[in-house]
Amino acid sequence: xxxxxxxxxxxxVGFLFFLPGVLCKYRNRGGWKETFAxxxxxxxxxxxxxxxxxxxxxxxxxVSVGESVVALSLIDRYRKSHPERKFVISTTTTxxxxxxxxxxxxxxxxxxxxxxxxxxxxxTFNVLxxxxxxxxxxxxxxNMIAEAHKRRIPVxxxxxxxxxxxxxxxxxxxxxxxxxxxxxxxxxxxxxxxAARYRAVAPRANVVVSGNLKFDQTPPENLEAADLxxxxxxxxxxxxxxxxTHPGEEALISRSFLELKKRHHSLKLVIVPRHAERxxxxxxxxxxxxxxxxxxxxxxxxxxxxxxxxxxxTGEMFRFLAAADIVIMGKSLAGQDEGHNLIExxxxxxxxxxxxxxxxxxxxxxxxxxxxxxxxxAKDAELxxxxxxxxxxxxxxxxxxxxxxxxxxxxxxxxIKTINLLENLLAEK
Length: 429
Prior knowledge:
18 helices, 14 strands, alpha/beta, globular
């Protein structure tokens, strides 16, 4: 195919351009790295032997931590209705790999996804020999899709979404992207708006609306809240959790925290950055704000109670959410407007504070707004006032959290729809 020839000619150039960033992330980011050679399609003889037991499995690709959490939740639901199924889950990032390896059930193998060079992809397919390829959300790699198609292996995108920004880019290059999308056997998307964007790029693609799988997430079994006494001391306190933060947000939230601390002496701050390797940068910000703090990656406890904890680790978000009294969701303040998943704190009935524009999570935000179940901040200057209202009122916190949990519960059911769609693909094979 002409589009694939052009892609494979340009791919080495693009790879060399992005290689420094890939190596930098590999060096600085934590997580599982022992089998990172699988990113280059290289498997040890021992791994090849191990993976023989998973021939015929459903290969599910999830990029990083967030997608891996949802993918594992889908696998758990899948196993209950189809216990005979085997799974392989792949990730791109080392942090996603570590989470998947720590949470994967017995009938699920975990690998690194190969870089999209045709020979690396082909080698991985030869090792896995899957019965189906399932891609989470937006990770569309042409050679991976084409190789599965060539082998007559069904390929599906699940929990698909397409932002306005991405849609414009896809439409401009529809000559390239339309054949890729139309090669997919199924594109299962979160909303009608996502479906319309996909169809605008590839009218002949098989696009189905099945809902957002994140609504069907459940908190981990036997969830225990993070032990914050080790950092903040015992006694009554109000914990403000800044979750999945990005550059600029930590400084803004820290300044608001300092202002609130003057009136609410029991207030404590926990910052969980989206990328754990930013722990040192956040430490510099808190030092400049004259806040006492501990980095979780460096210490399991504090010598004496501190004002703030930098939770620069991975795979512990639910534990910190469970320990929080108020949750600020990141990538929504300080010039950020793409947003992050609001469903996880809502599942636990936590009061949520977020920016008023979430380009990647508009549907979820609207659901919560319609239910009066979220506090939004239109301008950064409003953050302190919005937080003050919640810190001052346990009743308001409880009401907001209960409404959030109820609003999310109404939209469950995407997992069953998705599993049925995938089973139909396998039956048609």
